[in-house]
Design brief:
Elements: H1 7-13, H2 36-39, E1 45-46, E2 52-56, H3 59-62, H4 75-80, H5 98-112, E3 116-120, H6 123-126, H7 136-151, E4 155-159, H8 167-171, H9 178-195, E5 201-206, H10 208-216, H11 229-253, E6 259-264, E7 269-271, H12 276-289, H13 291-299, H14 304-310, H15 319-325, E8 332-335, E9 340-344, E10 351-353, H16 374-386, E11 391-396, H17 413-431, E12 436-441, E13 461-464, E14 469-472, H18 474-485, E15 487-488
The protein binds ligand GBH.
């Protein structure tokens, strides 16, 4: 893919003087670049002129400063400090030190041309013990962050829960406790109301599926529980209820015109072959494979097959709760990494999930199978099945085994390949009328990758965790070009 870029051009693009932290040079490609037309590589796939190009992060993965400004402990502090739970025993104590460095990082964002930035609020910075009196210092940080983003011409998108439950609430049963749903809504309503002058898009939760399944069933994420089916289904119900209550609480406190949504890691059901029977199978699979997450949020009911599968382990719920869960959203954010391939099948479900063969190509994270068509089918099916009119890709990105060359460069050609192909498929959907209004690349910075610690890097900016030095990777230059051209070629 680079064979039409000469060595000299590459050397100039990544030029020696463009050292780390030399912010204006984050994406030097436009400086003195040749006129694009003569060397353009075939079709240019353009996005709508108001398309929002962004990047995403999450509180515990970047902020550090875990003992500062009155923050209370969260389940991730506890989990990461428990021996044996994370790669190398890594914790988020320092992470990217974003709490202190956000102003410089915003200059990096500006240099890339980002139009929007998605961050999450740490609940235990606002309510150190989950409920009770708010901590003004915690709120100040997010106020200042939002102000600084706006000053740089970058729209803040705010997630209210990216997995860092206050430890005090876990001590009272976490999401197994019905009261946690209400506590979340109180926190979300309060916080969104306070930030609403500057933030116009709020997401209740990030990836309900992941913290329910990986945190509470598999036990590989905080709080590290391995609940049985019955307890897990009830916990799952409290999570979706917490989302619905939060939607209502947020609407009650924010300025008119504020939009409310969520960011869910849907199973992006993708037909194995694009033929009518497999496409139909993917439609059916979308509802069933997301039954206790986006499906119940959209429809206000658990699917018959979901309830049948659980039998006596099905959650207890009231009709009123189901109404709350389906509180209408202004937008749906979906995080897309790997596709879930499905095929037509004559079973009761009408489809079958096709597990990837062991030879299936993946990124540095073994789970991250490369399947660009997932970012075409995911949003397309969400739009068709639930008539969703405003969507965002709230996360998409890839881990690579990045390393700095002696000259201080990172040539993450695999990440560039990944992004180019996913963005090509995204453009395919958008150009067909799928209403995706923006894209948030995961992630701006290398950061704390949960149980994988600092080993798996997802940033387009390399972070030396010993010095906190930031160095733009080749993928940063690629993304800067995409944004500047509003197109992927
Ligand atoms: C997202 O999760 C998260 O929102 C974000 O915080 C995270 O940093 C990013 O993606 C990259 O991972 O342990 O091998 O079984 C994506 C969904 C679900 C993918 C949990 C990894 C565990 C895989 N993730 N899964 S494994």
């Amino acid at each position: 893919m680079f064979n039409n870029i000469s060595r000299r051009t590459l050397a100039r693009i990544l030029g020696g003087s463009a050292a780390a932290l030399s912010l204006p040079r984050v994406g030097f490609a436009t400086e003195g670049a040749p006129a694009p037309s003569t060397h353009s590589a075939g079709t240019t796939r353009t996005f709508p002129s108001d398309f929002l190009w962004g990047s995403a992060t999450a509180s515990y993965q970047v902020e550090g400063a875990v003992h500062e400004a009155g923050r209370g402990p969260s389940i991730w502090d506890t989990f990461s400090h428990t021996p044996g739970k994370t790669h190398n025993g890594d914790t988020g104590d320092v992470a990217d030190d974003f709490f202190h460095r956000y102003k410089e990082d915003i200059q990096i964002m500006k240099g890339l041309g980002l139009k929007t930035f998605r961050f999450s609020v740490s609940w235990s910075r606002i309510f150190p013990t989950g409920t009770g009196s708010p901590n003004p210092q915690g709120l100040d940080f997010y106020h200042h962050l939002a102000d600084a983003l706006l000053e740089a011409g970058i729209q803040p998108f705010c997630t209210l829960y990216h997995w860092d439950l206050p430890q005090t609430l876990q001590d009272k049963g976490g999401w197994e406790n019905h009261d946690t749903s209400k506590a979340f809504a109180d926190y979300a309503g309060y916080t969104a109301g306070k930030l609403s002058d500057n933030v116009h898009h709020f997401m209740t939760m990030n990836e309900m599926r992941t913290f329910v399944d990986v945190g509470n069933r598999e036990g590989r994420h905080a709080p590290g529980l391995k609940l049985d089916d019955k307890r897990l289904a009830q916990l799952n119900h409290h999570v979706v209820l917490g989302h619905g209550l939060a939607v209502r609480a947020i609407r009650a406190t924010v300025k008119p015109g504020t939009k409310v949504g969520l960011a869910e890691n849907i199973s992006a059901t993708t037909p194995v072959v694009e033929s009518p029977e497999h496409i139909e199978a993917a439609h059916k699979a979308l509802r069933e494979e997301n039954a206790s997450f986006l499906t119940v949020v959209q429809e206000g009911r658990y699917t018959d097959l979901y309830l049948k599968r659980l039998g006596g382990n099905a959650p207890k719920f009231t009709a009123e709760e189901m109404e709350i869960i389906r509180s209408p959203l202004d937008f749906v954010g979906i995080n897309i990494y790997q596709p879930m391939y499905v095929r037509a099948d004559s079973s009761e479900k009408g489809y079958a999930v096709v597990p990837p063969p062991s030879s299936y190509p993946h990124m540095f994270s073994p789970w991250l199978n490369v399947g660009p068509e997932g970012i075409y089918w995911g949003p397309k099916l969400v739009h068709e099945v639930w008539k969703v009119k405003e969507m965002y890709i709230t996360e998409n990105g890839a881990s690579s085994s990045d390393h700095l060359t002696p000259e201080g460069k990172v040539y993450d050609t695999d990440r560039v390949m990944f992004l180019r192909n996913y963005l090509t498929q995204l453009q395919r959907g958008v150009s067909e009328g799928v209403p995706v209004k923006g894209y948030f690349l995961w992630s701006l910075l290398d950061n704390y990758e949960w149980a994988d610690g600092y080993e798996k890097r997802f940033g387009i900016i390399y972070v030396d965790f010993a010095t906190q030095q930031r160095t733009p990777k080749l993928s940063a230059e690629f993304y800067k070009q995409v944004i500047a051209k509003n197109a992927v070629s």
